[in-house]
Amino acid sequence: MPHNSAQPSVIIIGAGFGGLAMALELQRAGFDNLLILEKSDAVGGVWRENTYPGAGCDIPSPLYSLSSEPNLSWTRRFSRQGEILAYLQTIADQRAITPRIRFGREVAEAKFDESTGRWQVWTTAGEHLESDVLVHAVGQLSRPALPRIAGIDSFDGPAFHSAEWDHTVELTGKRVAVIGTGASAIQLVPAIAPEVAELTLFQRSAAWVLRKPDTEYKPWQQTMFRRLPATRLAERFGIWLVCEGLSLSLVDVPVIRTLIARLGTRNLHAEISDPALRAALTPDYTPGCKRALFSNDYYPALARPNSRVVTDPIAEITPTGIRTADGVLHEVDAIVYGTGFRASEFLAQISIEGAGGVCLDAQWRDGARAYLGMAVPGFPNMFILYGPNTNLGGNSIVHMLESQARYITAMVSVLAERPGQFLEVRAEVEERFDAGLQKRLNRSVWTLCSSWYRTASGRISNNWPGTVSHYRLRTRRPKLADYHLHAHTPLETGAR
Ligand SMILES: Cc1cc2nc3c(=O)[nH]c(=O)nc-3n(C[C@H](O)[C@H](O)[C@H](O)COP(=O)(O)OP(=O)(O)OC[C@H]3O[C@@H](n4cnc5c(N)ncnc54)[C@H](O)[C@@H]3O)c2cc1C
Predict the structure, then answer these.
(1) pLDDT tens for residues 229-277?
(2) Ligand 1 test: best mutation among 138, 188, 341, 452, most atoms within 8 Å of CB?
(3) Among 164, 245, 341, 468, which residue's Cβ finds the most Cβ atoms within 10 Å?
(4) Nearest Cα to Cα of residue 46 among 164, 189, 167
């Protein structure tokens, strides 16, 4: 990308919510020397990938959307995948971001060149690009995780992950196994249960399930949101307030967990009358330790006569079904893996070399970490969106992404004002930040059970132990003193 000191060039990897939020923020600040590299053929990230029946957000759309790009015509409070994807496509097109995206470009490697202060980037097809600033917007949940189960490849029927739904497979009238009880499984189970002959849900641990205040927006409500913006803002604010309350339960105000447990238990008892099923669906850990889930139709789906919940651990997968540890073979026609994502392997799909040839995966051997989840010592002019410790247990990731996009844009402004220099976060600043973070995390609900939030060594590298307002405050005004400003020889010519 052309080098122009007043307009630092920025390569953004990924065109999901994060990449689009970043591009919008840069454009708004007058920086349009940017390029998005996206491995697939469309924008949307997880909302392009996750097309399983029932897919949708579990944070209400008025908050799970960009504050600068309100959608006045959401058809319901908890939008479905298609509507969220259309929203992101509209933003990309209307805000002239689409022409800045190169689709079908999967980034394989990035190297920082100290002599020029620029990032060298290569795609899997061998294409080479360079830029002053590199922003990773590859998400935490973009790489599906399959469980390690003996015989997983031996199954004769169709088997696929929820994020790679095979729409050519007809599940109607079939015996279907769903493995996993996370956020995706609890959406897809009610969507397929009425159609399949038998639904067998293999559950390792029961989830806390709360009712969700979903509603279809009537035309008069959409008109009201359009004519009286204060009503839309009031709804967004109310949702934000409730979500901040939920977030407080995770570290600072544990008493809220008791309330969540009460609500969850009441929901379970209201929906499930069979004592054995109720017992199977009763969580055995503190609410919040694994993500609390929101659904009005999950329990009714499991109470159907054609549904079964199996809690015996899976021993193996055979050509005809799933054998549990008690020796029973559960014969099925299709298997759906609702087993989540490789969330703690941050940026593992890209080989990244920073200043002095240091490799990011070696530096992160004991778990990913970054100052404010965005900046890593030794990796100048590189920022991460939705990076380590910026996932949330109860609020909108989009709020975090917007805080990060603003922060990074402010750092790009710093570079624009200081031609010939590049920025590297100070190691002691990152260490101090991480120490504070770990101290808070050690008091958090996530230490009370094992979950995808924790690495094999027990480090919690995904979650932010606070509210989104706390994060926004911390990222609102970047402190230049947190960074080294290194000099390099400014280039005299334009594109290289
Ligand atoms: C089913 C589902 C439901 C969710 N619901 C909610 C919710 O209700 N509320 C909430 O707050 N969060 C939710 N999330 C979390 C969600 O991940 C974030 O909210 C948000 O969408 C993340 O956006 P992102 O742009 O950071 O990442 P992603 O959406 O994952 O986008 C990353 C993009 O990077 C691209 N990419 C990856 N690697 C490369 C590479 N090497 N080269 C080029 N391109 C690459 C991918 O193709 C993808 O387009 C949900 C996640 C899932 C999976």
Answers:
(1) 999 999 999 999 999 998 998 888 889 999 999 999 999 999 999 999 9
(2) 138
(3) 468
(4) 164
Q: Are 369 and 434 in contact (CB under 8 A)?
A: yes
Instruction: Kindly report the protein residue whose alpha carbon is nearest to atom 27 of ligand 1.
Output: 139
CA distance readout (Å), 333 to 10, 233, 274, 385, 413: 48, 48, 27, 40, 57
Any ligand 1 atom below 6 A from CB of 39 = yes
Domain limits, the chain: 10-143+343-487, 159-208+251-337
Whole-model pTM: value is 0.95
Q: Give the architecture (CATH level 2) of 10-143+343-487.
A: 3-Layer(bba) Sandwich (3.50)
Tokens of residue 138, six digits = 């590859």
SS3 305: coil
Q: Which CATH class is domain 159-208+251-337?
A: alpha beta
Question: Identical fold at 10-143+343-487 and 159-208+251-337?
Answer: yes
pLDDT along the chain (496 residues), means of 10: 76 98 97 97 98 97 97 96 98 97 98 95 97 97 94 97 98 98 97 98 96 95 94 96 91 90 96 97 92 94 98 98 98 97 92 96 94 98 98 94 98 94 97 95 87 76 94 96 85 38
| 396 CB near ligand 1 (under 6 Å) | yes
